[in-house]
Amino acid sequence: MKLIIDTDPGIDDAIAIALAHALPQIDLIGMTAIFGNTFVQQSSRNARYLADLIGIDAPVAEGAALPYGASEYAPSDYVHGPEGLGDITDIPQIGSNDSRDAATFLCDMAAAHAGALTICAIGPLTNIADAIKRDPAFAANVASLVIMGGAYEHAGNVSPYAEANIIHDAAAADVVFASSMNITMVGLDATMKTLLTPTDFDTLAQKAPRIGGFMKRISDFYLDFYRSVGVTNGCPMHDALAVLACTNPEKFTFVRNGIRVAQSGEDIGATLGDTTRPPVKIAMDCDADWATSTMMDQIIELG
User: According to CATH, what is the number of the domain 2-302?
Assistant: First the structure.
């Protein structure tokens, strides 16, 4: 499977990127960076740093810095840390970004691998919406778009209605869900069932000191955040679960419906069922034990 990850690394993004590299079914051919957990320049720097750390030989293209219609953006650094990777603040600039912006890179790769490319979008959807607008063939060229985002029956995590990746650019998200792309939405209905415990991270560090040790270090900040909001027994996999939905959809339970994204009011960013929209596969459940154990086994194999 040819895969591009659209990402705003991000602690759970880092785990997802390592997992994608480790899974034998995936050929990770690139990453595109988006604002979200961090400013976009931090996102692309973090993606290049993680590629070097993990051993990924793939380009990183920097994308949108702002949501549609916005003149400024402030990341929620209390969730992922001031530089996006927990308490690590001295992240080096390694290599350089691809000369193309993210939307151009996505369009080019979709054309080069027409019918064979999967995109796993684990940040706000602005880069994907830009690619849809830039190239009329883009939506048809992409075999599958798997989104970590949204909340269908589950409560939101930014408001009672909205999940973070969607609300950070509700307008762009609505462009994506209105498109004809083959979309799978892996949102809070599924991801909140896949908790990684402090013991899990201890095990990763013990059995895979290099990558697992890094995951443990950055997880401490994330676990502390979840404790602060009442999730005392771990942190959700979130983005890594979307990667697993790319390779093993049979481990998930889906419903199908169109999705409209609320654009205003108290429910802005809500992902609402809309039968007039193209149908989307919406993950409602997953084999959580399989998901967490698969992630851990694959990270341990990286060493």
Answer: 3.90.245.10
